[in-house]
Design goal:
Helix content: 55-70%
Order of helices and strands: HHHEHHHEHHH
Number of helices: 9
Distance between the termini: 52 Å
Strand content: under 5%
Shape: globular
Number of domains: 1
Oligomer: single chain
Length: 215
C-alpha cells in the first residue's frame, strides 16, 4: 500500500507504464510505418491541417463568446477576407509550405530507433512542454524577423495579419497555467492591434526579456 502511494500512476517508472499497451500495439503492427520517412513527413502536415480544420469549424459553429474579434488594422483599400478565403489559404499553406518543410526534415533526419518502453504520463507531459518551449523560442525569432524586414513581412506575413482570428476556449493553457505564463488568444490578439508587442506565440517570457511585452 505504501509503495502504491509513493508511485502514483501518472509518475510511475515501472516496466509497464499506462501507455504501454497502446505503444506496444503500434510497434508490433505498424512499426515499419512509424519508422518510414513518408510517415514522418505526412503526419505533421496532416495534423496541422486537421487541427486548423477543427478550429475553423469551432469558429463557424461555436458560441460567439468564444471568438476573439478580428482587430481593425487592415491598410486602406484592403478588405477582411472571407472564411472561404481563409480555408483556401490554409490549404495552400499546408501544401506548399508545411508539407515541403516536413519532407525536408524527414529526409535530413537520421534514423531514430524507437524504444520498446512507452513513456510515462509525466514523461509525455514533460516532452510536450519542452516541445512547446522550443517552438516558442524559434517562432519568437522568426516572427520578429518578419516585422523588422519589410520585404519579408509583405511577401509572407502580411496575409496572416489579414486572416487573423482567434478562439478563447473555456479550457486552455491560458486558464490552467498560473501567473499568466501562457498568453493565449487574447495575448496574441494584442499583437495584431499593435505589431510591436507580443511576438511569441505561447508563453510570455521571451517578450518580457526582449521588452516586447505590452504594458
Amino acid at each position: 500500500m505504501t509503495e502504491i502511494w509513493q508511485r502514483p500512476w501518472w509518475f510511475t517508472n515501472s516496466s509497464k507504464p499506462l501507455l504501454q499497451p497502446t505503444w506496444s500495439y503500434l510497434l508490433d503492427n505498424h512499426g515499419s510505418l512509424l519508422h518510414s520517412h513518408l510517415f514522418s513527413a505526412l503526419f505533421p502536415a496532416a495534423a496541422y491541417f486537421v487541427i486548423c480544420t477543427w478550429f475553423s469549424c469551432l469558429m463557424l459553429i461555436g458560441p460567439s463568446q468564444w471568438r476573439v474579434p478580428r482587430p481593425q488594422i487592415l491598410a486602406v483599400g484592403h478588405r477582411s477576407p472571407s472564411e472561404r478565403e481563409c480555408v483556401v489559404h490554409t490549404l495552400l499553406l499546408s501544401l506548399f509550405f508545411v508539407l515541403p518543410a516536413a519532407v525536408l526534415q524527414s529526409v535530413l533526419r537520421t534514423h531514430i530507433e524507437l524504444p520498446s518502453r512507452a513513456p510515462t504520463i509525466l514523461e509525455l507531459g514533460m516532452g510536450l512542454m519542452a516541445s512547446l518551449l522550443l517552438f516558442d523560442t524559434q517562432y519568437f525569432v522568426w516572427h520578429g524577423l518578419h516585422h523588422v524586414c519589410p520585404g519579408l513581412y509583405r511577401s509572407v506575413h502580411a496575409k496572416h495579419h489579414q486572416d487573423h482570428s482567434g478562439l478563447e476556449l473555456p479550457i486552455s493553457l491560458a486558464h490552467l497555467l498560473p501567473w499568466g505564463l501562457y498568453g493565449g488568444p487574447a495575448y496574441h490578439d494584442k499583437h495584431h492591434k499593435s505589431h510591436k508587442w507580443h511576438l511569441a506565440p505561447y508563453f510570455i517570457h521571451w517578450d518580457r526579456l526582449a521588452g516586447t511585452l505590452a504594458p
